[in-house]
From TrEMBL:
It comes from Spirosoma pollinicola. Residues 326-539 form the Glycoamylase-like domain. This is Beta-glucosidase. Residues 49-126 form the SbsA Ig-like domain. PROSITE patterns: PROKAR_LIPOPROTEIN. It comes from the Bacteria. The keyword Signal applies. Keywords: Signal. The keyword Coiled coil does not apply.
Length: 555
């Protein structure tokens, strides 16, 4: 072989070896997850709800998993305390699929997180390309938390236990209702009005004696007369329950609140009609105190001293009319106009009602939602307290005026709210025909007026329970669910807590006077119409409502 041929032969051999080596080298591996399923279901958001307490979690990968790394790299933890749940692992699909099952039963209605960290490696020792996380929310425990009793006894229990908020927790000096269970000396004028009506229910149902109720209301009226600050006869929203001094509700709201005053007067006038003995000196004295407080409110002065046909919500000794908030419908303040027109001393004319409240018809709605026609107010009706606060005393049965049939209005509003929650367009956890009701209440990070156009998954028990006269079947269904199914989380010493959010697994630890009071009162109005009968028996109310153009067999 010539020298040149030998060199060529050797070169070809080297090239051949090089080519063979290239073919033998495996390509670089990518290792990432393909799917994560819980009980056979996927979620684009990696958020799984209504998960069984014995879930099967399956994760598939692009390459076979090194089994030894799985137990160290895949964790299931409870979100609220980071407690780790022991897992069992099985492998399939040539070890590309890992199936996880908890070794213990998960807690119901609890948030968990599954995490797969990059310490997981493939059988070729390639690390997982990124962390995988998914959230799990387990199902509600559907077992009864308390023994079943009759619906009538359950209503008794709810009224009696909720009443403890006003009776046991009433301010020791003034007897007035504290704003909430954490408010110390801060008492509320409007919430006290609701609490006064609750005292009447308690006396009438023998939760307390009539004399006990009379003693408490005498304490309250004495404080209101002798200690509480008033502005042209009207009370502030908040007071110091020990001294009667005004506590500002907001920067410029440091004087009269006419709407809160109307809630207080609604309660006082109802109490005047209840404690009606012609011979009992203490009941006679209570009626006189109530009349003096009632006649002292200068309702027409809140039309800016009679210069306007608008009735204004606030007046401040420091800021005058700066808040500039005319009381316009449709909302919770119909009672303010009814009482302003009913005053013996300073009644407003019908022109103020038409111009300011009804806005000459602009408060009308007339649209249908879920096939239910709504006469008045915003789309979907707004928060449910619109159909409750004024109607603790005003009986909406067969009540009409130029603008609406008020039984139709309040029933439609309640049914729309119920149907919205049952339909659950935003897919919040726990909304159903059993669990519904949006209104103003506490929420996880504050307070808000919840309604279909302001819905974040927060349900307030007062919403459905205080709708009892309008939706007796639906409200009773909600009451059973709140008590029997969620009672271990909702039912406490002073009734149902203020609100809950099952999507976030949050339960309030608060009570609010303006939410607890309507539960007692509106359940009673459904059962006996007690408060409706008492308030509508006031001769001033009959005259005032008639003057505004209302028609009702009760007037």
């Amino acid at each position: 072989m010539t020298h040149s041929k030998l060199i060529l032969f050797l070169l070809l051999g080297v090239v051949g070896v090089a080519c063979k080596s290239k073919q033998d080298v495996e390509p670089p591996e990518t290792f990432y997850y393909r799917t994560l399923q819980v009980n056979g279901q996927s979620s684009a958001s990696m958020s799984f709800r209504n998960v069984s307490v014995k879930p099967v979690i399956t994760v598939s990968f692009t390459a076979p998993v090194q089994k030894e790394s799985a137990s160290m790299s895949i964790k299931l933890t409870q979100k609220n305390n980071a407690a780790s749940v022991p897992l069992s692992f099985t492998f399939s699909g040539s070890d590309t699929i890992v199936t996880l099952t908890p070794q213990t039963t998960l807690a119901p209605l609890t948030a968990y997180q599954i995490e797969v960290s990059p310490t997981l490696v493939s059988q070729r020792n390639t690390a997982l390309n990124s962390t995988i996380t998914a959230s799990l929310l387990t199902v509600i425990d559907s077992t009864d938390k308390f023994p079943r009793i009759s619906d009538s006894l359950l209503l008794d229990l709810v009224q009696k236990q909720t009443f403890k908020y006003f009776w046991d927790f009433g301010h020791p000096v003034s007897g007035m209702a504290r704003e909430r269970n954490s408010s110390g000396d801060v008492v509320t004028s409007g919430g006290t009005g609701f609490g006064i009506m609750a005292v009447l229910v308690a006396a009438n149902r023998n939760f307390i004696t009539r004399q006990d109720g009379l003693t408490r209301l005498t304490k309250i009226t004495s404080f209101l007369t002798n200690n509480a600050k008033r502005y042209h006869g009207a009370f502030p929203h908040w007071l110091n329950g020990a001294t009667g001094a005004t506590i500002p509700f907001s920067a410029k709201d440091d004087g009269a609140d006419l709407v809160e005053t109307s809630y207080l007067m609604q309660g006082l006038l109802t109490a005047r009609q209840y404690f009606n003995s012609p011979t009992n000196a203490d009941e006679i004295a209570l009626r006189k105190s109530i009349n003096d407080l009632w006649n002292g409110v200068e309702w027409n002065w809140f039309t800016k001293s009679g210069t306007e046909t608008n009735l204004y919500w606030h007046w401040s000794p420091n800021y005058n009319w700066d808040m500039n908030m005319p009381i316009r419908g449709w909302n919770e303040a119909l009672i303010t106009y009814v009482l302003a027109a009913s005053s013996n001393t300073s009644a407003i004319p019908k022109t103020v009602y038409d111009n300011s409240w009804a806005q000459n018809g602009k408060m009308a709605n007339g649209n249908s939602y879920y096939g239910i026609k709504l006469p008045l107010g915003p789309a979907y009706g707004g928060p449910l307290f619109f159909s409750q606060y004024s109607f603790l005393g005003i009986n909406p049965h067969n009540l009409t005026d130029t603008y609406a049939d008020y039984w139709q209005q309040n029933t439609a509003h309640s049914l729309i709210n119920y149907t919205y929650c049952k339909t659950n367009p935003k897919q919040f956890v726990g909304y159903s025909a059993d669990s519904w009701g949006l209104t103003a209440s506490d929420e996880q990070n504050g307070y808000s007026a919840h309604e279909p156009n302001n819905d974040n998954g927060t349900i307030s028990p007062t919403a459905a329970l205080s709708s009892m006269p309008y939706t007796p079947t639906e409200s009773m269904q909600a009451l059973r669910f709140f008590y029997y199914k969620l009672g271990d989380k909702l039912w406490k010493d002073q009734g149902f807590v203020d609100a809950f959010n099952l999507t976030n697994v949050w339960f309030a630890d608060s009570y609010l006077a303006i939410d607890q009071g309507p539960i007692i009162v509106m359940i009673e109005n459904q059962r006996s119409q007690l408060l409706w009968k008492l308030f509508m028996s006031c001769p001033e109310v009959k005259k005032g409502m008639t003057n505004l153009g209302f028609q009702s067999p009760n007037l």
